[in-house]
Design a protein that fits this description.
mainly alpha, Rho_GTPase_activation_prot, Ras_GTPase, RasGAP_dom
């Protein structure tokens, strides 16, 4: 396939390139583009290539994929949709990291620095830590870290293109599973985007210089507990484990803030002007063929 930019072989090459691009992107149902996603390959590279090739049409592709994904989910599995490993879920996650890396880094850098430099675990399981004062101190610090992350998520400027993706997801889910629209949106933002960065920063594009070897086990355990607290908050799910139950008031107190956050994100999308999907020049040189090798 031709590259996103015109090649240098002359007008004939330019015409062929333009004709291919029009044919590939003009299908209102994006059959070819969606078929390519079903093949095994590098979803990350293909996402970058699609954002370049489709340009302002990319959001329409995302909307079509989301609507198709929602229509194929049964009532019994609606709440588990974000735990799936479909091409749609993968590309949504990758889009979030492509356009949201700076946002996530700004939000998480401070709290993650605290977690990275912990001298000891913030374990709250009373079967492991037996001293009540220590347990209380650990709970307070974990809750403080989770609260800081939530406050920063809510207050920081949200990426416009990611806001549009959230709006499409919320609307599509609401047409079939109205009661689950917020929990599924929360699953996307927290389960698939925010929490993986907190738990495994060394594998994310948000903190590319963090090496796995630099994360001591006690810091990883504390990160998992913070992520668990945020994920249950996003789902408005109270903890059933005895040692996590003391955090249920945190969930009860903050869930209205989370819903207001979702509302603000979706309300920020201006239907009259789609957010740009243009990437840096180095990314736009990718071709769909190259992305799939």
């Amino acid at each position: 396939m031709a590259s996103c930019h015109s090649n240098e072989d002359g007008e004939d090459g330019d015409d062929t390139n333009d004709a291919w691009r029009v044919a590939f992107t003009s299908d209102p149902d994006f059959h070819t583009a969606r078929a390519l996603l079903q093949r095994k390959g590098d979803i990350k590279a293909l996402t970058h290539a699609y954002m370049c090739v489709f340009g302002d049409q990319f959001l329409n592709l995302v909307r079509t994929m989301v609507e198709s994904e929602v229509s194929n989910v049964s009532d019994a599995h609606a709440v588990e949709m974000m735990r799936g490993n479909s091409a749609c879920m993968k590309i949504l996650s990758e889009v979030a990291y492509v356009v949201g890396t700076d946002y996530l880094r700004d939000v998480l850098a401070g709290p993650m620095a605290v977690l990275f430099h912990l001298q000891d675990t913030l374990e709250v399981n009373h079967a492991i830590v037996h001293d009540d004062m220590t347990l209380a101190a650990h709970r307070a610090q974990l809750e403080s870290l989770a609260q800081t992350i939530l406050d920063r998520l809510v207050c920081a400027p949200f990426p416009p293109l990611l806001a549009a993706v959230c709006l499409y997801l919320r609307r599509s889910v609401a047409t079939r599973f109205h009661a689950h629209s917020d929990s599924i949106l929360g699953g996307f933002l927290f389960l698939r985007v925010v929490c993986p960065v907190i738990v495994m920063p060394c594998r994310s594009s948000v903190f590319p210089h963090v090496a796995k070897a630099s994360l001591p086990p006690h810091a990883l355990r504390s990160s998992i507990l913070v992520a668990k607290l945020l994920q249950n908050l996003a789902n408005n799910a109270f903890f059933k484990e005895d040692y996590m139950a003391p955090f249920n008031p945190f969930i009860r107190r903050n869930f209205p803030t989370v819903v207001a956050f979702y509302d603000r994100i979706c309300d920020s999308v201006d239907a009259a002007t789609s957010p740009t999907t243009r990437l840096e020049t180095t990314t736009s040189l990718l071709t769909v063929d190259e992305a799939w090798k």
